[in-house]
Structure formats: structure tokens, C-alpha cells
Specification:
The complex is a heterodimer. Chain A is an alpha+beta fold. Chain A has 17 helices and 22 strands. The chains are: A alpha+beta, B mainly beta. Chains A and B meet through strand 16, helix 13 and helix 16 of A and strand 1, strand 2, strand 4, strand 5 and strand 6 of B.
Chain lengths: 504, 167
Amino acid sequence: MFNKVLIANRGEIAVRIIRACRELGIQTVAVFSDADRHALHVRYADEAYHIGASPSRESYLRGDKIIEVALKSGAGAIHPGYGFLAERADFAQAVLDAGLAFIGPKPSSIAAMGDKAVARATVSKAGVPVVPGTEGEGSLSDEELLAIAPQIGFPLLIKATAGGGGKGMREVKSLEEMPALLRVARREAEAAFGDGNVYLEKLIDGARHIEFQILADTHGNVIHLGERECSLQRRHQKLLEESPSPFIDDDEELRRAMGEVAVRAAQAVGYVNAGTIEFLVDKDKKFYFLEMNTRLQVEHPITELVTGVDIVKEQIRIARGRQLRYRQEDIRMKGWAIECRINAEDPYNDFMPSTGVLTHITPPTGPGVRVDTGVYPGFEITPYYDSLISKLIVWGETRAEAILRMRRALEEYRILGVHTNIPFHQRLMDSHRFMAGQFDTRFVEERFSLGSAQESVETHPDVAAIIAALVAHRQTQRAAQFVHHNERDVSNWKWVGRWERMRR
Amino acid sequence: MNVRYVATINGTDYLIEIVDDRRVLLNGQICEVDFAAVGDQPIYSLLLDGKSYEAYVYSQEDEWQVLLLGNLYSVRVEDEREKRLRAAAGGRVMLRSEFHLKAPMPGLVIAVPVIEGQRVQKGDVLVILESMKMQNELKSPREGVVTRIRVAAGDSVEQSQTMLSIV
């Protein structure tokens, strides 16, 4: 059994894992790139080692170096977090081969779920419904895909076989536009994953993205911790998640049915540790298996808040060979939790990523508020990694209380130095459709805009006008202390010279 | 004499007269104000007739961006003299300077879907830049003609590097 854990990650998730280790009395080892010497995970860990240059392929993706550091530092286990090496079966295998524990599933489960086509074939054999598409067909040529497409029907999605996070994904409305979109998707998949293989999937209209959190120990116990609603996305990137789902709400029968199917899907690959089964749910509450994420999810805290289970600690216990501390009947969802992903991006400029030094941060505090972050004032947001600054998570007794609390927390949150998407979340909290729970995966892109008048909220242009005028007035007055405004015929430099002579 | 400003938001003018440190006139209506910068930050606290507001204010090009209660307002502030001068010049006659598309952050150029001499409309994609694991479309802020393309697909660019120009 291990007493020291190496965290093969950075940012807020590395900090989250260090916290869990601390509470369990486990020593922690951080690794870092050139850009992250001053990062919070390096400062929080008991030990920290440099592993390479800033680009992730030279640092956080260097599995060999990370295992070397683990052996050198005497760590007995590696926690991969999410992203980077978290879903690489070869890395998990190399960790085991080095005599270390991998805090995650078996390499064979990662491999089975990692190839989307194999995953779909495996779970559908176990009686789990899947979305119609070219499941389990392996890598098909463009000609073959174009021939199959009309049978699946339009609209459909082109997805990367090795994919995730929206990379290499394209929506196709007709056969005519399909060849061009295939080229783009393959190119993007090739660039992102080194694998240009794609498959087709029927696009489900009005679909909701709902996922179930799974925990499985090495003794054959598999339970689920209820669902998370993840339909609010932009370009297939999740922006806001909540638990429970307002769509399932008090339909215990649907929750039980989906939970059972999720457990069955995990068992189909002999799953161990924490994982997530993603479903698409259509208007008629028919649900289909989408994919399994064989790792800790970004949005795991909302499940922690409604179930009271510390998922990261549970992951470590499972990796230490312990039995789950919970049976399915022990799991009760209490209240409502919402998470907003606070990203360094400009919602007023097409969500363009924003980099720079964070000059000031005032995080929200008070009842029911949790902030998971890896940054602090003075830290620089660099272009090397993703734009997640922090996760703002709130809990309320009811969904209404959670929304009001999130509004309050967003208003308190001040981050200066980079643009953030906080105004986007504020507007979302005011949206009537969001409040009513009437949204699907297309809502953000098709029905929601920051400037839209239909989602009307109280505005204060008069107050903004006064503030701008007062700021401008201050600036003019300050400038006037150096140079008088009305003497335009003389250059400013001459004035500065005269002013300096006068002071001598 | 009061200093008079005209603040314009979305085509609506607000006449603001500074009476003294504690009073302003908004379109002729007297308001009590208590205005303070918070710390050394571009955050301002305004007590307006007792009501407390807080805003994040920064300048962008020739406008003030005011982020207030989750809404962003672009405010053009002119003193009356500037406003009169602009009106006398016919209002619409704006100096049409060249626009230089600069990289908003370091990254990799994925594609340049325009060619030199091409006429583009506002919102047309000029360059696709990959940074922070995302492909970002950099769009034209106005219509014009593309000139002097300095980058090609596959190039790495530094922050603020000029990639092309629009005239």
C-alpha cells in the first residue's frame, strides 16, 4: 500500500488531488513545466520536480519522465487527474510495469472505452442502448462513410474515433456538404490525437447530455452516484453543469433505469475506480449510451455536494485495495448543486482565449459556495494550457436557491488581468429558459446570446454613463496637472520643459 | 462653470455635468454621487443617491468599457467641444485608418482563408489561430481589402505580431 502519490497534472485538478491526499495523510509529489514553476500545485505539494519545457508534449505528456520522477521520489502511486495522460492505456500500463499503482481503471478498460467504436460494440453486447451510427466498424474510408450516411439519416455527426472535447467533430446536414466536412474533421483529429479515423453518429434532436458518476472497487462492487446535467455547452465544451438534472428531476424511475444501465456498461469492461457514463436523452426520455470517460471528471464536485461523497478520496481508497464505503442504497441526492466553469476568455469577442497576469482576484465566499482553482493574484495565464481559471460551485436546498446563490457568487467574483466568461454565466442565470430548465445541447449556440433583447434583464445604461464620464473626468484632470489643455499651438514637450524649468 | 460631458451608449446620448465632487447633473437632473476607485484596481465604487454600484472600467480604442452588474456597456465620452467639432465635421466622416490584425496571443496559424487583394465583409474569417487547445477564428472588424499577408498555415506567431492588414 502506498503512502506517497505523484500527481501527473497541473492547475485546479492537481490542487484538488493534493487536498484529498492531505486529508488522508498521504505525501504528495508535484511535477511541473517551465511555465508552471510558480503554480499553486507546486507550492502546495510536499515535493515538486521539473519535467520539461512549457508545451505539454515536452512536459505533462512525457509519461517516461513522470514515471522516472515517481520512482526517484519514492511515490507508490500516480494520479493522472483529467486530460493529459489520464486516458492513455499505454501510460497506465507503463505505471503498473514500473511497480506503481495507477489511481484509475485497468489499462484494458481504458483501451476498451477509449476506442469509441469498440466501446459502443462492447456495451451494446451487454444490452446497453447506443446511438445509431457506424459503431464497431473500425476505420472506414470516405467512400464507405458516404455510402452508409443516408442509412443513418441526416443530420448526423462526424466524430473522431480517438476523440473527445469536440475535436474532429462536425455536424453534417446533407450528403453534398459531407466530403468537405470529412476532410476537415480528419485533419483536426489527426492534429489533435495523431489519429485521423472518424465515425458517424445520428444527431438526436433536442438532445440532452446527462451523465452518471460510477464508483467501482476491486472487490466487484459497482455503484452510481446519480446524474449530472451537462447540456449547456458551446462548441461541445461544457460550460455549466448541475446535479440533479432538471430533466430527470423527480422521475426516480428514469434515474433508477439509467443508473442500472450505467453500472452495467461499467461492468461490461470490468471497470475499477471512478468513471462516468455519458448518455444522450431525447425528448421522449429515451436514452442512449454516448461514451465512457475513464477518469475523474472536471465537474465531479457537484456530485460531491449533493451526495456528500468525496470522490477523489474514494478513488485513492479504491486504488489502495479497500472496499467501497457505500452501497447503492446509501446514496441519497440531497439538494441541488451547480458548477460554472470560469474560463479566461472574452464572451464579448467570440469567446477568444485571453492570456496575461492575474492582477487581482476576489473569490466569492459565504454559505454554500466552493471555488476549486489553481491560480492566485500575480499568476500568469499562459497560452500553453486550457483556459480554465477556476470552477465556481454552489449548493442550495432547491434548484431555485442554487440559482440565486450562483447569481450572488458570480456578482462577488472579481478577476482582473484577463477577460473571463463571468458575464456570460451571469446572463445565463438570468435566462428564463435556463431557470425553467428548458434547454438542450444546442441552447447556448442557437438560442442564447449576450446581447439578445428577448432575454431581457434590467439594465442601467444611465449609471454606466455616469461612471464612464467620471472616470474620463478624473483622467482629464490628472492630465491637466501636467499640461494645460487649451494651449494647443505649443507642443506638449515644450510645456513639460517649461513646467520643469519653473520648478527648478 | 460645470464641466459638461456627453456619454453615448448604443446611439443614446446622456448629458452629464460635473457640479462638484459630490454632485452631477444627469440630463439636467441633480444626483448625489460618491465616486471612489477600489484599491489600485480599475474597479470603481459609485454611490448614486445612496444606491451602491460597482463597475470594472477599462478603455478600448476610443471608448470606455463599463462592466456593470453582468452587462458590458461601450461608452463614448466626449466633452461638449469635441462633440460639436465632430458634428461640424459631418459626423460620419471618420478617419479611415488601416487595420492591422495582430495575434491576440501566441499560437499556431492553422489557416489563412483569404488572399491579398480580396474584398472582405465585417465578420469574415481572416486567420484561424490555435492557442490554449482551441482553434480561434479571427474575424475582420469591418469591410475592406486584404493587404500584406505576413503569415501562412503552419507558422508560429508571437503575441501582438501583425499577421495581415485591411485597408
